[in-house]
Write a structure and sequence with these properties.
Keywords: DNA-binding. One of its GO terms (molecular function) is DNA binding. The chain is α+β, with helices and mostly antiparallel strands. The protein contains eleven helices and seven strands. It has helices spanning about 10-15, 40-45, 50-60, 75-90, 95-105, 110-120, 135-140, 145-155, 170-185, 185-220, 230-280; strands at about 30, 35, 65, 70-75, 130, 160, 165-170. The longest helix is centred in the C-terminal third of the chain and has 50 residues, at about 230-280.
């Protein structure tokens, strides 16, 4: 734990501006599908309850399963909601989206289409998130966790305020930041460099996915086309298997580059020391 000259109570008061009115519970799971209330679905899909109901009325979002008076949604609904949101951001209207979905569903099995949507939009972090309270955060980072740093961590998605607790969706990243901070690397500097790394990782992911789409879709159906028939479930199944393949490639390549970079820095430093000795010897 780090010590700080600042008043811990004052730091906590500053950080708790992120506290929401009510604690939010993580969605339950049932079988192979996560389940959501309409509020949870809207939150996970970066939408609103009003929008969810409007999309149902327009026929572009499936109706939920009714259990008593409560509507229960699944990751199938979440996948569709994310796709709707992405299309709206690109300037499509709800009528455009409805027509697009109708055309997409014609001549194809709906379950296959929904399965592909889930595979594409739910390629989520397989690590179970951890939860902390604000005092835990202060204990871990001390004076490094200023309101400005907190804002940056929240924007990056490494800390998600949920009522009186904090969800940590990437515990390994959190622990890495903690170790670097304890070693003397300012947390603000870590987050600044993570932002730069993320830009490069975005480009890497786009190239990797672009390669897959080119060989599995474009070469068979042409650019800007969608898979058909039995290729739909096949593509969905392959997408679910991409992550471990990508992880293996990136992890091994990153390890190789890290080793090369560390050795170069060490050799360069040794060379500088030897040059200094020879100059003054």
């Amino acid at each position: 734990m780090k010590t700080s000259d600042r008043n811990p109570a004052a730091i906590l008061r500053s950080l708790k501006k992120y506290t929401q009115a009510d604690a939010e519970e993580a969605p339950a799971e049932a079988g192979n599908h996560k389940e959501y209330t309409i509020d949870e679905l809207a939150r996970e899909g970066s939408s609103t309850v009003r929008n969810v109901r409007a999309y149902q009325d327009r026929g572009i979002l499936p109706s939920p399963e009714k259990r008593g008076r409560t509507g229960i949604y699944t990751d199938v609904h979440l996948a569709r909601l994310k796709i709707i949101g992405a299309l709206l951001e690109r300037g499509y209207t709800l009528n455009n989206i409805r027509d697009l979905l109708i055309a997409w569903e014609q001549g194809r099995e709906l379950n296959d289409i929904l399965g592909l949507e889930v595979a594409v939009t739910n390629w989520q972090n397989p690590v179970v998130p951890s939860y902390l309270d604000y005092q835990n955060l202060l204990d871990d980072f001390g004076e490094d966790i200023t309101p400005e740093v907190m804002t940056k961590a929240v924007k990056l998605g490494y800390i998600i305020p949920e009522g009186m607790r904090l969800r940590i969706p990437y515990p390994r990243v959190y622990n890495a930041g903690k170790e670097l901070s304890e070693a003397g690397v300012p947390l603000d500097a870590v987050l600044t460099h993570v932002t730069l790394v993320r830009e490069e990782v975005d480009k890497l992911a786009e190239r990797f996915i672009g390669m897959i789409i080119h060989h599995l879709v474009d070469e068979k159906y042409g650019d800007d086309a969608l898979p058909e028939g039995e290729d739909v479930p096949k593509l969905a199944d392959f997408i679910t298997r991409i992550r471990p393949l990508a992880d293996a490639v990136v992890s091994d390549e990153l390890g190789r580059v890290l080793e090369k970079s560390i050795n170069k820095i060490l050799v360069d430093r040794l060379a500088n020391v030897l040059a200094h000795i020879e100059k003054n010897g």
